[in-house]
Amino acid sequence: MANPRLRALSRCRKWAKKDWAITAVGFTFILFALTLLFDSRNSDTPSPTIDHHSTQGLVPLTLLNRAKATGAFCLDGSLPGYHFQKGSESGSNNWLLHIDGGGWCNSIKTCNVRKGKALGSSEYMDRLVPFAGILSRHPSQNPDFYNWNIVKIRYCDGASFAGHPESEFKNGTKLFFRGQLIWEAIMSELLSLGLSNARQALLSGCSAGGLATLIHCDEFRDHLPTDATVKCLTDPGFFLDEPDILGNRTISDFYHDVVQLQSVTKSLNKKCTRTMEPSKCIFPHQIIKNVRTPLFIVNPAYDFWQIQHVLVPVGSDPRGYWKRCRLNIKECDSSQIKILQGFRSSLHKALSKLEKDKEGGMFINSCFVHCQTWMAETWHSPNSPRINNKTIAESVSDWYFNRKPPKKIDCPYPCNPTCHNMITPG
Ligand SMILES: *[C@@H]1O[C@H](CO)[C@@H](O)[C@H](O)[C@H]1NC(C)=O
Ligand SMILES: *[C@@H]1O[C@H](CO)[C@@H](O)[C@H](O)[C@H]1NC(C)=O
Ligand SMILES: *[C@@H]1O[C@H](CO)[C@@H](O)[C@H](O)[C@H]1NC(C)=O
Q1: Segment 350-376 mean pLDDT
Q2: Is 140 annotated as catalytic?
Q3: Is there a domain that residue 212 lies in?
């Protein structure tokens, strides 16, 4: 291929097929950077919480030593880890767990890349991390959970804590598929630290951690006292089984590969895996059919991760017509917005079961963003996104504490001026 443009296109297409999970690897870091790139309507008012480190406190990493006993290792064989901030006073017996995000790996190649990064190895994890938003210990930023025991669980298996070692390679390819074992080792450790006596508990997670939350929600519930209040929250985790703009089943094929590679089927609901192609059962609209524990879904209607990887993966746009729009919703023309509105309708349709569920809650804002609960600016701040004048934090609390009707669905883009629409680097 002599034409450099064609060469670039072919590289793009290949990149899209094989390596887009890698994008997700850098995702956690990108998100931090993105908090500074908000396309905020209040760009001339200084953000009250921009100084993360002085206001949010840093919480150290604890390596999970007990993981040695069961071989519950990260992809590279290192120990998994978590960050723990002890609860106090009225929060002493309450627990909030938050599972990190970071995409998935669907091939030996993409999993191998993770071995050299925090998403596959604790060797590379930051030893100290800020706790913000839903993790914050400041009542002004986190009014209802600030004094709970708060745990941030680091993600290092590449399959939403649902892989099994049966499919590890017996040849020279050294990759540990121990996601389910990591989940169990973390539970065992937290139960021994007081989780077993919890009065109130909330399991939550961002992105791949949001999916892990859905997969493990009932297991979490079953570990806790029967009279405790236990609920689960995903932010976002509602990945849609939708074709891309060319009509190809990109996301479905991708999850199929993840499920095959890491033997994820064993962690999925048996009622589901008996009746259909098992990898279909990793999709949230299937998972929620069988979850018994109350669920809250925080999900932007224009989740940029899904727009960039489900609806318009790079390979689906060889002419680059979506090049700018997929990174910044303000760059979309009217025909592209129409397609995005179709994606929003599919999300609402997929959520219809939960809409009828009396114990379920949701906050579906019409914003171009991804994880919103662990950032102060989007969780609860004077200029955070709102629906009916409620922040995400207030809506989650209304649901958790049974205060108010907990289902909030926004009008379509661009109707909500409180959005923090992001400009993503791609
Ligand atoms: C190990 O086996 C897998 C699956 O058959 C194969 O893809 C991989 O290349 C093999 N690795 C080595 C080092 O032979
Ligand atoms: C995607 O769809 C197009 C058009 O239908 C088709 O030509 C192409 O081969 C498909 N690509 C993949 C990777 O399936
Ligand atoms: C929205 O809520 C804030 C408090 O969070 C309140 O001060 C304000 O008056 C409310 N605005 C409307 C229009 O209800």
Answers
A1: 95
A2: no
A3: yes
* Active-site pick, 244, 303, 317, 398: 303
Q: Is the pLDDT of residue 112 over 60?
A: yes
SS3 label, residue 34: helix
| Whether residue 303 lies in the annotated active site | yes
Count: domains in the chain = 1
Does residue 75 have a pLDDT over 90?
A: yes
**Residue 26, in any domain of the structure:** yes
Whole-angstrom distance, CA of residue 335 vs CA of residue 341: 10
Structural domain includes residue 149: no
Q: Ligand 2 pocket test: pick from 14, 18, 246 the residue with the most ligand atoms within 8 Å of its Cβ.
A: 246
The rounded distance, in Å, linking the Cα atoms of 301 and 410 is 9
Q: In this predicted structure, what is the pLDDT of residue 56?
A: 52
Ligand 2 contacts (CB < 6 A) are 246-248
For residues 88-117, give the mean pLDDT: 98
Q: Which ligand is nearest to the CA of 253?
A: 2
pTM above the 0.85 mark?
yes
- Minimum-distance ligand to the CA of 384? 3
Domain with 222 in it:
4-57+180-422
Is the per-residue pLDDT at 250 higher than 80?
yes
Q: How far is the CA of 243 from the centre of ligand 2 (A)?
A: 11
- Burial (CB < 10 A; 0-12, 13-18, 19+), residue 234, is buried
Residue 369 lies in a domain: yes
Q: Between residues 6 and 382, which one has the greater pLDDT?
A: 382
